[in-house]
Amino acid sequence: MTAVRHRRVSVDGIDTFYREAGPEDGPVLLLPHGYPASSFAFRALMPALDDRWRTVAPDFPGFGYSEAPAEFSYTFDGYSAFLHHFIDTLELAEYAIYLHDYGSQFGLRLAMAAPERVRGLIIQNGDIYEDQHGPKYAPLKRFWNNPSEAGIDALAAAVSEEGFRDEFRGELPDPLADRVSPDLWKLAWAVTNTPQRRAHLVHLLAEQRHTVPWFPRQQTYLREHRPPTLIAWGRHDGYMPEGAAHAYHRDHPDAELHILDGGHWLLETHLVEVVALVREFLARIMP
């Protein structure tokens, strides 16, 4: 296997860190990360694909090793626009997209903006069906329905090392939780623990309520375009239980669906299984 390359590029004047692996001229798999992660979440997947595919994983502004400029829009609109500008900066003409967590929102909006450039989608615990939201959404929804200073304080309390640990270990049974490296939350917290970066993440959590009106539009995109799609889903997910995966078949019945006995972060607990599914899928759509 070749080494993962660690690079920086200026996107709209923002110093942006990204990881890249695989042949420079290979078919591209774009890896937008979720909360509270960074491109580090894909550190094991990328070398497992690098014999045939070029994988590209940016750190979004305010996450990982990228800059956190005061003037950036720390909203889902802002991050979605940033991802579009990132792929244009790297001159990525076509790509498959890995849709996970918040990265699923950014990636789907990218796909909707230019459907002709999308070779396929890999959906891994990224939800667009509100009726299938799990119980872990309850505190967020209380804030969505009644935004308040107290609600902001509750969100701020979750932007902590303990809060990050809960995001990564989640509802996993103990034997599976033991597979999740502490490096995930400790690294995420180490690069986030400044007043400015914490405030940016609190703002993004508050902004999440604005993703729900996008769900019908994203469902329409799937229904009308039917891109080749692989769904690999961890059932132990308090935000997005198994029903959230099956719901995709309402709008994209041809999507290939696999339910695994993991949680929200399958690449930590079921890497071998996910790699096998992804390789077989990519070999079909981007040989």
Q: Summarize this, please?
A:
This protein is α/β, with parallel strands linked by helices. Helix content is 40%, strand content 17%.
* Portion in helices: 40-55%
From the structure provided, what is the oligomeric state, counting identical versus distinct chains?
single chain
* Sheet with most strands: 8 strands, mixed
String of helices and strands: EEEEHEHEHHHHHHHEHEHH
Q: Which radius of gyration do the C-alpha atoms yield?
A: 18 Å
User: What's the number of structural domains?
Assistant: 1
The strands making up the biggest β-sheet line up spatially as 1-2-4-3-5-6-7-8
Enumerate the spans where pLDDT stays under 50 for 5 or more consecutive residues.
none
Question: What's the shape?
Answer: globular
Structural class: alpha/beta
Secondary structure tally: strands: 8
β-strand percent reads 15-25%
Topology:
Elements lengths: L4 E7 L2 E8 L6 E3 L23 E5 L17 H14 L5 E5 L1 H13 L4 E6 L14 H8 L3 H10 L2 H9 L4 H4 L5 H10 L2 H13 L7 H11 L3 E8 L5 H5 L9 E8 L2 H4 L1 H15 L2
Parallel strand pairs: 3-4, 3-5, 5-6, 6-7, 7-8
Antiparallel strand pairs: 1-2, 2-4
